[in-house]
Structures are given as C-alpha cells and as structure tokens.
Amino acid sequence: MLNGNLLKTINITKNFKLWSSTIPWKIPEYPELNEEYLCNPCNSNAIEKNINNRKGVGDIKLLHELKNKLEKINGQSHEYESIRSQYYKELNQIPNDTHPNIYTNGDKPKVIKVVNNKKLFPFKCEEFGEIAKKLNLVRTEQLGNVSGNRSYYILGELAELEQALINYFVENLINSGYELISVPDILPRYIIERCGMNTRGERNQVYTLDSKIHPPDMCLSGTSEMALAGFLAGDILSEDDLPKKLAAVSRCYRAETSSTAEERGIYRVHEFTKVEMFMVTTPEMSDNALEEIRKWEEEQFKSLDLHFQVLDMPPHELGAQAYRKYDIEAWMPGRKVYGEISSCSNCTDYQSRRLNIKYKTKEGETRFVHTLNGTACAIPRLLISLIENEQNEKGLIHIPKVLHRYMQDKTFIGKQKGVPELRLVKNKKK
Q1: What pLDDT is recorded for position 140?
Q2: Most confidently predicted of 125-139, 211-225, 362-376
Q3: N or C: which end of the chain has fewer CB within 10 A?
Q4: What is the pLDDT of residues 246-303, one digit of tens each?
Q5: With the C-alpha atoms ordered 214, 320, 350, 75, is the resulting torsion angle positive or negative?
Q6: What's the mean pLDDT in 346-362?
Q7: Which residues is 326 bridged to in the sheet?
Q8: Cα 211 from chain centre
Q9: Contact 254, 222 (CB under 8 A)
Q10: What would the pLDDT profile of 355-365 be if each residue is shown by its tens digit?
Q11: pLDDT for position 1
Q12: Cβ of 311: how many Cβ atoms within 10 Å?
C-alpha cells in the first residue's frame, strides 16, 4: 500500500511549453554536439564502422564535405544558412558511440546471467491467452467498436494484480532513492527526436496528433523517459546533486504491429502502462550507474520468482542513443519462449547535448551530464510471464508472496464473477 508521502508527485511545467512547437531558448536550435571528435578526419573510419555496425543512418563523408563548405563560405553567402542547416541535420544523425566490450560479443545478444530455475509443471502448461479466457481476465477480441486492433481490457483481479505490480515497483524505487514524477503523455516532436526517436516516415513507432485539430508537431509519448529528459532540458545541475534519480508511471503509446505467433495477444500492443527509471550522472559515474540499474531490476524480478536471462545487446539493437543496453527476458512456459520484460540503457551525453542538460563541477566547470534509463515494470508482458509461471493444476493463479499485501492479502486469482462475458456486437447498417 502506498502512503501519502509515496503518492506525492510533481507536475511537469518547466523548461518547455507543452502546447508550443517553438523550441525554448534553453534548448538551442543547433545543439552543442561533439564536433571536435565527429569532424576530425582521423576518426572517420571508426565513426563509419560504428554506423554500419549499428545499422543506423548517418553519412560521415557528407558531414565533412558540408563542414568544409561552411568554413569556405564563412557566413558571406546566401547559401550559408541552407548549408548550415543541412550540416547540423547530418551531424545530428550520427549515432552514439558503442561500448568497446560489446564488439567482442559479435552481432548477437550475449547472455551474461541466468536467474532462478525454470519451474517444473506436473501438468500441461497453458499460455496466457487460454488462461485469461477461461478465468475471464482479459478481453482482446471484438473491440473494433471501442478501440480497434491491438487493444485490450484487463479485468477483475488481474487488474488488481496490475495495480499491485505498479505499487510494488514504485514503492521499491522510492525506497531506493528515486523521486516520483507525474509526466505528460503528449510531448512536442523535438523532445522525442532529441531523445533519439524517429517521429517521421512510414516505419516510425510514434503517434503524431492531427495538426488540423491539435497544435502542430505534438506526439503521444512512447515512454516516460522522454518526458523525464524534457523535464531537465536546459538545466544546469550541481555535481553535489548527482546522481539524480527520477521515476514515473505513465501510459506508453507505440504505433507498432507484429504478425509473429510469439507476439500474439497482449504481448505487443499499441498502449500499455510502464514504470520507468531515469538517472542523471557525471560521465565518470555512468558505467557503474548502468550496472546499478541492471542489478536493481534483477532483484525485483527475482523477488517475483521469475526465471529470466540478462542479455548484453549487440550494436544493431542500441538505436541511435544508447551506448550500452541490457535486456531482461523472462521465461514464458505456456508459450515456451523467453520474452523481453525489461531493459536498461546508458545514453552517455547523446540526449544531454541535444536537450542542453549540464552540470557544474566542484571546480566551476560546466559539462554535459550522462543520462540512463531502465524499465522497472512493463505491463502487460510482466503479467504474461507471471500468469504462465504461477498457474496450477486446478486452473488457479498463485499470486507471488511479495504482492499479497498489495492485493488485500489475496493469494490466488480464480474465475472472475460479476465481470461481463464477451459478446459479439454487430453494427446495424443505417
């Protein structure tokens, strides 16, 4: 149960105007990227190799050509602003560096740890969808009249379990020194893009609001990491205040689809609830901070009696922003697969340079911070793993002991009574 102190939250009202597409003065139009390194011809081969390994975008040769043009023009031509804009666009597309240890792992994830043993079942395991249908816990079918494909309703005691997980993880985060913040789900496009997510083109995962109805360039947030980073945009923190640990509970929106059997049901959906961790550190602290986040995540999932593996992800799984990334995959015995339930990343100064987040050292020098993020609890994948692992031969679901007090001391979930059964509703043509 969360007491009053644990439920205190802070509304985001600083540094960026939510309903304006104008970039605030604290966030420069042209961010202070590491031009000294990126524009040094001696580093071209290493940068190009990094781009190729990450399967990312970016053209280091074009960047150098534009840099040379700018130096020759030197602001004396009408072409200067056009070339300058193109130069910064190319500069911004170069992905973050990659941790050198990752290259020794090859192009596949490396399993660095396995926690708990797989549970042995004296009966045939059922998958989440079959269990949920029998116990009337989830509705995913015939929702076209309500919310469309890849949508769902979580019902009865499973909805209680969802809330219990959120409360459990939030309480543990606060006890670990994280500050809970309530964040907006609608963000300006530039915040999302400067965090490293693409918002344009056919293959992006971001929902953009209709500019005919809403203010221009507003999007639905895919993770509260972006709102938390935007919260600090333009700030100069004190070194004494680092590391700064923030957490948020939010709805996440993803315009993604999948037709694979492993990702059926509620495994991959257009919106879900997530508890997110966000940390700001000095450059010297970020490697250790990532290990701290990973170990914290491992402890929480271990306490839920889950069997899972921890993966060190290869370069092509890092996106544009991550320097290093760990994934946690839990065993789902009904599906007989491991499924990702969490991840954590060190983004070094990729986001802080683009959002102008700095700190002042004890000697008075101003430097860019490093940012890190981690998934504390992602619903509904965590529900899938828990339900499949905690099923018994009587068709009931055992509730992990650490969650009992968050569910009024209930120990099992059974068939839901008083919850409407699924019925097919047909629209009559007018």
Answers
A1: 75
A2: 362-376
A3: C
A4: 999 999 998 876 556 555 556 678 789 999 999 999 999 999 999 999 999 999 999 9
A5: negative
A6: 97
A7: 312, 344
A8: 26
A9: yes
A10: 999 999 999 99
A11: 45
A12: 22
- Using pLDDT thresholds of 50, 70 and 90, give the confidence band for residue 17: very low
Rounded-to-integer distance, Cα 174 and Cα 177, Å: 5
Contact 185, 251 (CB under 8 A): yes
Mean pLDDT over all residues of the chain?
A: 88
Would you say residue 427 has pLDDT above 70?
A: no
Query: Which two structure tokens, joined as six digits, stand for 326?
Result: 């760990």
Main-chain phi, psi angles of 111, to 5 degrees: -75, 115
